[in-house]
Structure formats: C-alpha cells, structure tokens
C-alpha cells in the first residue's frame, strides 16, 4: 500500500477527501508540485464537488451466508453497493476495489443499485430447500441511504418479507426507515422485525465530519423514539468506538434509552485494507493534533498493527484500551438497564412466496 498524502482540503458533504487508489491498481498517480504553484491555485479556485452517480445492476443472488463466529446472524442482504453517507471508517469501503473503483470518493459517489433484488429474493425464498433464518438488512452499506427515497429497493424487500412472514432486522443511521413503518410495525407486532439505529456520537460537529451524509445525531434519536412508540423493538449501536475521537459513549446510551432503545452493542473501529490510509488521511485533515495518539491506541488494540482480522478480536480489539472500552460499555448498559431481554424473532411463521404477480387462490 503506498504512503498517503495529506489532501489539500476537505470536501463538503464527503467523508473521503481523495480518490484513494484501490489495492488492485497497477498505476498510481499522485499530485505533484511542479514549482508553478498549480496545486495552490487549484485549492484556491476549488473544483466542482463530486456528484453522486447511481448505476444499476442485475444480480443472480441476494442472500449472503455468514459463518463468522463473531457475527450474530448467518444471513444478510444489502440492496446497494457503496454508500452516500460517506462514513470515513466504513469497513465496507474496500469492496469497491473489486469493482475497479476507489474505496475513497468512488465508494460514496458511485453507487450500485441492485434493481432486481426483490425478484431474485422471491426466487431464493421459494426454493424447496430454503429454511428461514433471521435476515440482517444493511449490514455492509446503509439500506436507507439517500437514494432509497427514490429507488425504494429496501421497501420492496420488506414488502416481500412481510408477504412471507419472514423475520428480519435492519441496521441504519438514517431517519428514512420511518417511511416504511407501515410495513415494519405490523411485522414487529408478530415478532418478525427489529431495527438497530447506529448513534456514533451526540456531537453534531464530529458526526458531520465522520458521517457527513447520515442523519444528524438528534434526528437518529427521534427515529428511535418514533420506532419505539410504534411498537418496534429498537436497539442502539454505539459503533465504532474510536479512541480520543468518540468519547461520549455513556451519554449516547442514556439518550438512546430515553428515546426507547432497549438493547445495545458496540464495536471498536476496524481499518481493513484501504480504510487504514483513508482514515489516517482523515485524521491528519481534521484532527492533526491528535492523529498520532489515535493511531497509537488503535494499534495497541490490534496487536501493534492497523488492523487484525482475527475472529476472536476484530470486533472488540484486545489489550488494555479495548478492556477499558468494554468496561465502560458494560457498566453503562448495566446501570441504565440495556440488554435485560433479548430480541427474539419468530422463525415458525414463514410461508414460501407465490409466483411474482400472482395472488393466492385460497
């Protein structure tokens, strides 16, 4: 991986500031000062902000199987590749490398929509050998990122799961989940749906830098309240925990409980592949005074490396600092009352779907 270069300036509304080359590229190009002051002129004049581009994809399968021992679900589904929320720490950024796109700006501006997702899911759920299991929606990229308001692919999936009484859980940072309450609330009443809202911090300024196009923290709390009041089981994810950056875990948990969340979980920041240089770039741009300290603590939790993919430690880290975060979380959740009851979804109500467009005769 080549050394990163501090970007000239942050891009409004974007998490990444550069078109970071992906790990499969053979040719890497860097800005070079030729002595004529062109770099400074370009920074002063500015360039057109990168626009969001949506590409459509017809997929052959939509359900991903998971056998990782540190993940509490064995089946997941993501309607989109890439995510306009632009969270700089997103562990899914390197997946854009397989598309020959940058995990940097491309990941948050060149989005792939799986336009036939509901049709393919119907076929998969209708197979004779299919057995229902909890489907986690939006685990890699947010299923309610801004383009969902127009494309409504997530809604088409939930409508099918509602038709078949198939249990599911949603993970999101978006208030747009509220637009599907007409489907989610009746499913929740039958113990078939739960929603987990990520609230990384209550600091709006920090959130704008970390997660530039996700809902503001106060808006996510309002979404938790709206869901809870509609009878939907709601959990809060206080993830990722980043040393010396996100320092208000206890306050987030208290606010989420007050809003109606009753279960909680966390992870520590993960920096696989290209996420590490992107995150270092972001630190140098936004928090240069503490960048070295932050990375030192992250490496302390990762056995001296930027990232360690070991199943036993990749979600929570290891070492003294990881233990401190764990203790803070456990003490806060025990004191507040989180995780007293497990959200258990019903697997026995599932009925296979009919042929698309054909109603039941009975």
Automatic annotation (TrEMBL):
Q: Which InterPro entries match?
A: Elp3/MiaA/NifB-like_rSAM, MJ0683-like, rSAM, rSAM_sf
Domain annotation Radical SAM core: ranges: 69-305
Which Pfam families does the protein's record reference?
Radical_SAM
Record key words, sorted: Iron, Iron-sulfur, Metal-binding
One example GO MF annotation: iron-sulfur cluster binding
List the PANTHER family hit by this protein, alphabetically. SLR0285 PROTEIN
User: Know the name of this protein?
Assistant: PA0069 family radical SAM protein
Organism (species): Variovorax guangxiensis
